[in-house]
Structures are given as structure tokens and as C-alpha cells.
Amino acid sequence: MYLTWLDSNSWLLEIGGKRILIDPWLVGSLIFSNLDWLFKGSRPQERPIPENIDLILLSQGLEDHTHPPTLKQLDRTIKVIASPSAAKVVKQLGYTQVTTLAHGETFTLDELEIKATPGSPIGPTLVENGYLLKELESGLTVYYEPHGYHSPQVKQAAPVDVVITPFVDMTLPLLGPIIQGKNSILELAKSLQPQIILPTAAGGDVIFEGLLMKLVQTKGSAEELRTLLEKNNISTKVMEPTPGDRIELPLEKRALAT
């Protein structure tokens, strides 16, 4: 299994013989509703568009997960698995093979199974998707949730080999947490028993500007997480990949359930 972190929430995951592009933001700026004074993300140079993509996986319909300028650069015939809100965006962009996954639903592509789990709440009524990606032959499983909101349903998948989720809390005064990685990560590690945890949503080469970034309070770090896991006798390895580097994850195959 190989992973390439492409900054922010964007990943290239190679699993089950497939190349999965997750929540890609690779070109242009990241701006919500054209309000660049409120929030703007940029990077010194654009990421190259990965080749030979078998599937695009989208967890949310917001621009930092379903980024229109990037999606316009990709082949519209690539298969897409998406939350209901993200599916609306890619259909409007002309994608022709879009599968919408509601919570609990699964999609199988050859030796890869993808299951949608309840993820991040967006507003008072919308709950977006997290995903469990399972290599059927080996049983190796990856869990991805980009804001640190983990449904109790995810515990049923334990053990999970790789977890991709935030390590940090990001909070706005009066509005509360945007990302709640620090507050949720220990319980997640206890329940899923992952071999490896990797961070998402923060760090990398991205430069964030605007009024929101002046107000956001951030707490937590990879080193704090390592200390926390050690104190709780949890052997999970915390990895911090360098953006753009393709890494082979040092995983041990576990016995498949019978």
C-alpha cells in the first residue's frame, strides 16, 4: 500500500491495485464562495495532476474537498464516489460515472471495497462522509475522516490498519470547533487499534490567509499525540509524510476474520 500526501486533505492512495485520488485540491487557490478576504489558501506551486487515476473519492461538498478548479482539470469519465452534496457538484461539472454513497452503503471495485461512514457535521442538518477502504484480498483497511468527527459505527470495523484524520483542534470563537482532532484521536486509536496514523487537514506547503485564519485557535501536534499514545500503551505509529513524497506504508498483514 502506497500513499502520497498532496497537502491539505488531498491524498493519492494506492490500494487493492487501484489509484484513488481523495478530496483533490491541486491547482489554483482555495476560496469559499468567492470571499477571498475571509479565507484563501494558496501554495508556492501547483501540484501536478496524478496520472492513471482509477477513482476519485470525495468526502464533502465544500470547496476544500470538492474543489471545482481541480476537478475541471481531471478526466470527467473517471469514476467518482461521493457524499450526496459532493455528488451534486461533480455532476454539475459533467462527470459521467458518479456513485453517491449514503452512510452505511458500500461500493466495490474489483479487489477494493469502500464503505461510507457518518463524518463531519456541516450546519444543523447535514452530516458528510468518512470512508473505510478495504483491500479484499489482504484485509488491509484505511479509515479517512478529515475533520475528526468519528461515528460510533466505525468501531465495528476494528482493527483498522491506517487512519488518516487530524491531530489538531481548530476552533473559532463563538462558533466552536471546525476540526476536532486532538479531542477525538485517543478514543479512535483505542477503538480501531491502527498500525499507523497520519495527519490531514493541516500543515504541508499551503499558505492560509484571511480574516478566519486570524481568529482560528489551533491546539495539538504529532509529538503530543505520540506522547499520548505512549502513556496509554498504544503501539500505533504516528507518521508525518512530506507533501509530494510517495511512501510505502510499513504494514503487517493481520489474520483475516473467519
From TrEMBL:
Pfam families: Lactamase_B_3. It comes from the Bacteria. InterPro entries: RibonucZ/Hydroxyglut_hydro (IPR036866). Signal peptide: none annotated. PANTHER family: METALLO-HYDROLASE/OXIDOREDUCTASE SUPERFAMILY PROTEIN (PTHR36142), METALLO-HYDROLASE_OXIDOREDUCTASE SUPERFAMILY PROTEIN (PTHR36142:SF2). This is MBL fold metallo-hydrolase. It comes from Komarekiella delphini-convector SJRDD-AB1. The lineage of its organism: Bacteria, Bacillati, Cyanobacteriota, Cyanophyceae, Nostocales.
